[in-house]
Design the sequence.
């Protein structure tokens, strides 16, 4: 298996990776790093937890470091990474800072719900050559004339399918138009573009066509981790009893670290309250919370001060929280993409994990359909005698 040096990654960046005991590239990194280093735009799809962030950051940062200090007037960032949530943007910035290892290139974080004047001041004084942000805030800074795209050479769309979804599509399209205008006569053809997610559909490619016309499409077996590293369980529960069933499951399974998903933010808040009432160390992460509370919730979960994090699907996108042993879904939608993203919060970095669906009859029918579509095996489980166990055969139940 080729190491990072064999992919063309510089010795300095190889040393940075080795400091984290990262010595061999993942399959998606082997696919994506060489073409991006060569300036080829790519659209790539790979399961969650396979190293997508370093797949695009390594070549992008290497190109910047190889260019040396910027000469002449500051023309704006040379690398722009866009992602849909502030948590994912913050995580990407942390990884970029790690690779830069004190370099003067600088990384600016431009997300909503953060003081705009402070971000403008950071642009003016810091002149970052790497910008990470959500499309809405980046676009606002560009419209105000505070952020220029004239020096942009590398654009990344992380969670591209979400950026092309109806709730984000208008802002993403406006940002692409602003970038094209800022680049002048060369337009988008001068950019190296990387677009990625665990689920990049043909429809996503259609919406992002102005950026991706010349991109090569790469993908690994997106269901490999779902099938081989994650065990899938189904526990039946009537809708009104789901929270009670969750409490019983946590007591029986005693998971090390559990991420619980609900379909609506209101439900997430109710579940948090119910678990707190039962003296369970829990944190909540859902829309409507301010940035500080969201950051505190994640820090409590990461540090182990909270054993359980209850979230809307806000946390399903791209977040890498080490050590999640179990993911629990209190509802099952019809979208296989949503299931992939939820399940992908466990079984990461070579570890094994368990995806548990606690659902009613409709949820179980949907899960059965997803089982066939995704090629996974879902094992029915019951809570009995304080344990998680396989259902007893009907004949055994009758004898008992």
Sequence:
């Amino acid at each position: 298996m080729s190491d990072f040096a064999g992919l063309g990654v510089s010795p300095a960046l190889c040393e940075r990776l080795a400091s984290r005991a990262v010595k061999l590239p993942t399959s998606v990194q082997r696919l994506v790093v060489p073409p991006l280093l060569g300036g080829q735009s790519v659209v790539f799809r790979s399961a969650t937890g396979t190293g997508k962030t370093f797949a695009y950051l390594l070549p992008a940062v290497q190109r910047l470091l190889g260019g040396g200090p910027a000469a002449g007037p500051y023309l704006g960032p040379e690398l722009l990474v866009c992602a849909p949530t502030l948590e994912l943007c913050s995580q990407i910035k942390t990884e970029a800072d790690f690779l830069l290892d004190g370099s003067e290139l600088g990384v600016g974080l431009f997300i909503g719900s953060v003081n705009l004047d402070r971000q403008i001041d950071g642009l003016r004084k810091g002149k970052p050559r790497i910008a990470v942000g959500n499309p809405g805030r980046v676009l606002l800074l560009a419209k105000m004339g505070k952020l220029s795209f004239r020096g942009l050479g590398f654009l990344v769309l992380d969670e591209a399918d979400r950026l092309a979804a109806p709730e984000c599509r208008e802002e993403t399209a406006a940002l692409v138009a602003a970038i094209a205008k800022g680049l002048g006569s060369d337009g988008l053809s001068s950019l190296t573009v990387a677009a990625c997610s665990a689920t990049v559909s043909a429809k996503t490619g259609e919406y992002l066509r102005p950026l991706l016309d010349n991109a090569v499409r790469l993908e690994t077996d997106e269901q490999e981790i779902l099938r081989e590293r994650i065990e899938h369980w189904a526990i039946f529960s009537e809708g009104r009893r789901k929270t009670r069933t969750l409490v019983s499951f946590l007591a029986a399974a005693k998971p090390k670290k559990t991420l619980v998903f609900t379909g609506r933010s209101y439900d997430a808040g109710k579940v948090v309250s119910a678990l707190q009432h039962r003296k369970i160390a829990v944190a909540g992460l859902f829309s409507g919370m301010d940035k500080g509370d969201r950051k505190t919730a994640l820090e409590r979960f990461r540090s182990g001060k909270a054993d359980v994090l209850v979230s809307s699907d806000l946390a399903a996108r791209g977040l890498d929280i080490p050590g999640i042993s179990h993911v629990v879904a209190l509802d099952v939608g019809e979208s296989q993409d949503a299931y992939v993203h939820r399940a992908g919060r466990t079984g990461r970095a070579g570890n094994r994990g368990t995806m548990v669906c606690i659902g009613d009859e409709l949820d179980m029918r949907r899960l059965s359909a997803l089982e066939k579509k995704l090629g996974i095996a879902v094992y029915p489980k019951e809570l009995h005698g304080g344990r998680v166990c396989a259902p007893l055969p009907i004949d055994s139940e009758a004898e008992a």
